[in-house]
């Protein structure tokens, strides 16, 4: 199927619509982003691709990076990682502390902040140079040596990230963080600060649409079963406490970030990334959600 006409049509329609919501301002550096940016990059496993708008401009991928940290930990430790966190949607905001008390420091899933912080702790325990090794992994899956952290964003988040520091210390109090909270939280802020464009994100995570294998060199990044499971967690937990709504309206595994990006995967077909910085009240890109809803409906291309 040639998706380009529908992609173009939906892009033009959504571009003209009023962008509701506002840019994330709780991380001061993110508040400086031009709210009118709008980019889309669509890439199929057969090699065809299509970009629109600001698709080559790097932005702060924030929680989309939690897909990469999960994949790296899952690749290295296999099913053991599920001893430290669950695979259930939380139904609470991404940075919530409330469930951790009753769940005794075991986060509901790897995509809420609490779960990603535990993944960071796991990676620190497994990697010789966590920051460099994480970047090498990102560069490997994307065949792109320009992928980097933003020191500005990481510092900016550190200056205001009291809630994440609290989460990390709280989990540590239950014994589910092994390293020092300072080290873990610094690594977490670095992870969230990665900058990539829509094109780079779609290319990097296309292996999730290809049974775990990279398209360029056929290298197996995750096993087929791990890939299925990662997509399943994206489906049920990837859009904070709007994951049900995203499944209902879009019908694809996805992961959003407060930088305004959304990555969506159609298993065995394509990866698509959207970027529009204005967020709705749940912290998801307003136009990103809107674009994907219209696209999967018009193209009859959801997994349901
Ligand atoms: N660095 C952000 C935070 O921890 C990530 C939030 C997000 O993109 O979901 O608050």
Detailed description of the structure:
- The chain is α+β, with helices and mostly antiparallel strands.
- It folds into two domains: 4-59 and 197-298, Beta-lactamase (3-Layer(aba) Sandwich), CATH 3.40.710.10; 63-192, DD-peptidase/beta-lactamase superfamily (Beta-lactamase), CATH 3.40.710.
- It is built from twelve helices and seven strands.
- Helix 4 (113-126) packs across helix 7 (162-173).
- The two termini are 18 Å apart.
- Bound molecules: glutamic acid.
List the helices and strands and how they pair.
Layout: H1 4-16, E1 39-44, E2 49-53, E3 59-60, H2 65-77, H3 98-102, H4 113-126, H5 130-142, H6 151-160, H7 162-173, H8 181-192, E4 195-196, H9 198-204, H10 224-237, H11 243-249, E5 254-256, E6 261-266, E7 270-275, H12 286-298
Antiparallel strand pairs: 1-2, 1-7, 3-4, 5-6, 6-7
Helix pairs in contact: 1-12, 2-4, 4-7, 4-8, 5-9, 6-8, 7-8, 10-11
The protein binds glutamic acid.
Provide a short characterization of the protein structure.
It is built from twelve helices and seven strands. It is of the alpha+beta class. The protein folds into two domains: 158 residues, Beta-lactamase; 130 residues, Beta-lactamase, CATH 3.40.710.10.
Strand order of the largest sheet: 2-1-7-6-5
| Assembly form of the protein | single chain
Please state the average pLDDT score. 96
CATH architecture of the largest domain: 3-Layer(aba) Sandwich
Radius of gyration: 18 Å
Helical content band: 40-55%
Q: How would you describe this structure in keywords?
A:
alpha+beta, Beta-lactamase, 304 residues, 12 helices, binds glutamic acid, 2 domains, globular, 44% helix, two-stranded antiparallel sheet, five-stranded antiparallel beta sheet
């Amino acid at each position: 199927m040639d998706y380009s006409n529908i992609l173009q049509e939906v892009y033009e329609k959504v571009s003209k619509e009023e962008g509701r919501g506002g840019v994330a301002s709780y991380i001061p550096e993110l508040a400086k982003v031009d709210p009118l940016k709008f980019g889309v990059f669509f890439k199929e496993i057969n090699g065809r691709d299509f970009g629109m708008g600001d698709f080559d401009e790097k932005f702060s991928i924030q929680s989309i990076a939690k897909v990469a940290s999960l994949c790296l930990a899952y690749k290295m430790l296999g099913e053991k990682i599920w001893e430290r966190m669950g695979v259930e949607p939380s139904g609470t905001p991404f940075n919530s502390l409330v469930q951790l008390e009753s769940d005794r420091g075991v986060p509901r899933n790897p995509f809420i902040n609490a779960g990603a912080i535990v993944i960071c702790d796991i990676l620190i325990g497994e990697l010789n140079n966590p920051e460099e090794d994480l970047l090498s992994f990102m560069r490997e899956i994307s065949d792109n040596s320009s992928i980097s952290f933003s020191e500005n964003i990481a510092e900016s988040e550190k200056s205001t990230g009291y809630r994440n520091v609290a989460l990390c210390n709280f989990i540590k109090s239950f014994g589910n963080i092994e390293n020092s909270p300072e080290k873990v939280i610094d690594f977490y802020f670095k992870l969230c600060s990665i900058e990539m464009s829509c094109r780079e994100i779609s290319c990097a995570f296309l292996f999730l649409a290809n049974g775990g294998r990279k398209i360029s060199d056929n290298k197996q990044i995750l096993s087929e079963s791990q890939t299925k499971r990662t997509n399943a967690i994206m489906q049920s937990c990837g859009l904070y406490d709007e994951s049900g709504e995203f499944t209902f309206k879009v019908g694809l595994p996805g992961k959003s970030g407060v930088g305004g990006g959304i990555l969506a995967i159609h298993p065995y077909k394509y990866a698509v990334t959207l970027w529009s910085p204005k967020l709705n009240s749940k912290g998801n890109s307003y136009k990103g959600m809107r674009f994907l809803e219209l696209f999967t409906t018009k193209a009859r291309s959801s997994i349901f």
